[in-house]
Amino acid sequence: MLTAIVFILILGVLIFVHEFGHFVTARRNGIKADEFGFGFPPRMFGIVKSDKTGKYRFVPGNKEVRSKNTIYSINWIPLGGFVRIKGEGGEDKEDADSFAGKPAWPRIKVLAAGVFMNFILAWLLIAIVFMIGAPEQVDNANGDPSAKIQISEVAPNSPASAMGLQVGDEILKNGTLNTVTDIQNYINAHKGQEIVLPVKRGSQILNLKGVPRTDAPAGEGVLGIGLAQTVIVKYSFFPAIWRGLTTMLDLLLAMIIALYGILASLVMGRGVGADVAGPVGIAVLTKQVTTLGLVYVLQFAALLSINLGIINILPIPALDGGRIMFILIEKIKGSPVTQKTEQTIHSIGFFILILLMILITLRDVTKFFIK
Strand 56-60 relative to strand 170-171: parallel, antiparallel, unpaired? Predict the structure, then answer.
């Protein structure tokens, strides 16, 4: 239940912030927003400012409202939000407050604003993590009693994966295992033999059993884990804000490079790779980070927010980047692509995205639930 709540909250906040970016930017550029809603329809209720009195009035259910003002609604499906912008489908071109009637630059700003807000959200989440206190890798803890030995990487299809070790797990010190070197020596001394690692995961204490390999692939080690010595480091407000920004930009660049690698693999017919996850995979990862605590949940949400922003800005039909692409084509050729043609291309793009999501979901189900 907790995992489901956290999963819904994370996705809800990411989507709501994205749509809020579209909404605010549209309003600032003189474009009417017919409705801005929390959650997805059907509508539970809403409020709208009266055209005559200027006072807000209650709107029950899905009652149709004709107003020059925005309806602010609460909807039954509690996942994110949405904004209905006047003229976003190409209609009402003659109206001054229509999206379709605006020049190219204001339209591009409105479409890009959701992506920008996702990056801003990631920045703020990471800054909050630095203010709360986040684990940072150190080479020498200088006898700091708060220093932990944590798992920084788990190789797929390795003994570590089979025994249930997860990134973020803390290997508990027990008098014999006190340093990264101690643990590495212990593992290497028991190749082909069962070992027990005492692990702390959130509030749980686990004794996980596994058998290190006698031979291992290059770069993995016999158990298939990466280890890091970490200490909790906190920053005051302004250093945390600055470090949050630089960290967000580093992650953004790393994800763009990773995405390039995935696209290159697709073009060369090598598939999408094991690291691409759909809703099921994200839900499983949410369960894992939830057991580790608030800091890990916030970090995970920041990563998802950056991912959402990157994917949405790609020049793919049906996404924000695809719609920006059509505006740029309009500027280059001096006239817009016909509304029918653009809608057809967006529909095809949406169908392909849904099909891809189904395929990734089926792969996630097979990976996580079918052994």
Answer: unpaired
Q: Do 11 and 80 contact (CB within 8 A), yes or no?
A: yes
Tokens at residue 201, please? Answer: 């995961």
Contact 3, 73 (CB under 8 A): no
- CB count within 10 Å of CB 71 equals 19
How many angstroms separate the CA atoms of 146 and 227, rounded? Answer: 16
- Indicate whether this model's pTM tops 0.85: no
Per-residue model confidence as pLDDT tens digits over 45-81: 999 998 888 889 998 887 888 888 999 999 998 878 8
Closest CA to 163 of 135, 136, 189, 187: 187
CATH topology of domain 136-233: Pdz3 Domain (2.30.42)
Domain limits, the chain: 2-32+86-130+302-369, 136-233
Can you tell me the distance from the alpha carbon of 356 to that of 349, in angstroms, rounded to the nearest whole number?
10
Distance in angstroms (rounded) separating the CA atoms of residues 137 and 226: 12
Q: How far is residue 266's CA from residue 259's CA, in Å, rounded to a whole number?
A: 11
Sheet arrangement for strand 71-85:
56-60, 33-49, 71-85
pLDDT over threshold 60, residue 254: yes
> How long, in residues, is the chain?
371
Please tell me whether residue 75 adopts helix, strand or coil conformation. Answer: strand
**Are 285 and 307 a contacting pair, CB within 8 Å?**
no
Nearest to 34 by CA among 20, 19, 23: 23
